[in-house]
Structure formats: structure tokens, C-alpha cells
Design a protein that fits this description.
With 209 residues, this protein is an alpha/beta fold. The protein is built from eight helices and eleven strands.
């Protein structure tokens, strides 16, 4: 008997500098059947950013249209620019039977969980320590002094919400962390409340054996 699972959403969050993008990219490369929800934003593209890959870059007018029509699952305003998750692609992928991965903060996670009750799996990536997180931020070369301390304070604040997530994964080494995330996804696909029995759905599974 072949079992299929009802597709679900996988939300990955991490504190600033937690390596979320790197881990996410490895998971998507190893599990190409998973769709990735690209966030939309009104900010201008940075150098080397590709529309539709890094973000969906839209005008403020278009973003407001999506807000009015209910097209956004979640959204936020950050420093005068808007960020949000379009709903239509996600619904299409779920209808096709594909799981969908989303890269969100805790506020976005809460909104998605409200919209897809029982169909969301949340994973929080933790740094091995705050000192290592500091080193990673320093290595990026974009944060120093007060900016660095602000980033670290934000990271501590974000980690205060880790208890809201279904799973924790320590991102000490990218390959190992990505493997743990993939193991979680595969295990969730085998949960009995996600499985579809097809022609056996009206039969008690134990009676069949």
C-alpha cells in the first residue's frame, strides 16, 4: 500500500545572523519537491538580488492592492518599506500536493499558523552560543560597534520566542543543521494525521492487515 501525505507548510525562523538562508538553500537543493515561498517587498533590490528569487519586488501601490484584496498571508512594515507573503502561489502548490517552505520571523509565523491551522510545522534555528553569533556577524563585515550590539539585542529578543516553535535545531554546522531540518520534514510526512489512505480511507488500517 502506498501512502501519500497532505501537504503542509514549513516555517523556518532564526535570530539575525543565525544562518537561516544558508540552511534553507541546502534543504531546497536536497529536497527539490518542496516549493519555496518568496516574500514580496517594496524596497529597492540590492546588488546581485534577483527579482522572483531573493524577493518579489513590487511598488507600494501593488502592495496596497494585495493588502486590500487579501492576497497577503502576512505582512509587516520595516523602516518605511513593506514585506509580505503572497497567498496565491502557496495555495497553488498545496493543491498540487507540494509542501511549502517559508522563511519568516515570529510574527509572520503566527499569522501563517492562524491561516493554516494544523498544517504548519515550525522550526527555529539556534546559534551554538551568543559568542559564536557575534563572531558570525563580525565576519560578515557589515556590523560593527553600536550596530553590532543592536543586532545582538535583536537576536536575543528573537530567541525569547523560540519556545513557540515545534522544533529547535542548533546551527553549529550547516550540513548537520540542514540534515536535521530534512529529518523533521520527513518525519512530519509520516504522521498518521497527515496521511491519505486513498482507497483504504474507509477501512480501519489494522483491519486491512
Amino acid at each position: 500500500m502506498e501512502l501519500r501525505h497532505r501537504p503542509f507548510l514549513i516555517v523556518i525562523s532564526a535570530p539575525s545572523g543565525g544562518g537561516k538562508t544558508t540552511v534553507k538553500n541546502v534543504v531546497l537543493e536536497r529536497m527539490p519537491e518542496i516549493a519555496y515561498s518568496v516574500s514580496a517587498t517594496t524596497r529597492k533590490p540590492r546588488e546581485n538580488e534577483v527579482n522572483g528569487v531573493d524577493y518579489i519586488f513590487v511598488t507600494h501601490e501593488k502592495f496596497r492592492e494585495w493588502l486590500s484584496s487579501g492576497e497577503l498571508l502576512e505582512w509587516a512594515e520595516i523602516y518605511g518599506e513593506f514585506y509580505g507573503t503572497p497567498k496565491s502561489p502557496i495555495m497553488k502548490w498545496l493543491e498540487e500536493g507540494r509542501d511549502v517552505l517559508l522563511d519568516l520571523d515570529v510574527h509572520g509565523k503566527r499569522s501563517v499558523e492562524r491561516a493554516f491551522v494544523g498544517r504548519t510545522v515550525s522550526i527555529f534555528l539556534l546559534p551554538p552560543s551568543m559568542e559564536i553569533l557575534r563572531e558570525r556577524l563580525l565576519d560578515r563585515g557589515t556590523e560593527t560597534g553600536e550596530v553590532l550590539e543592536k543586532r545582538l539585542r535583536l537576536a536575543r529578543s528573537e530567541m525569547d520566542h523560540a519556545f513557540e516553535y515545534d522544533y529547535w535545531v542548533i546551527n553549529d554546522e550547516v550540513e548537520a543543521a540542514a540534515q536535521e531540518v530534512m529529518n523533521i520534514i520527513r518525519a512530519e510526512r509520516q504522521k498518521s494525521n497527515r496521511l491519505i489512505y486513498d482507497e483504504f480511507h474507509e477501512t480501519k488500517i489494522l483491519d486491512f492487515y
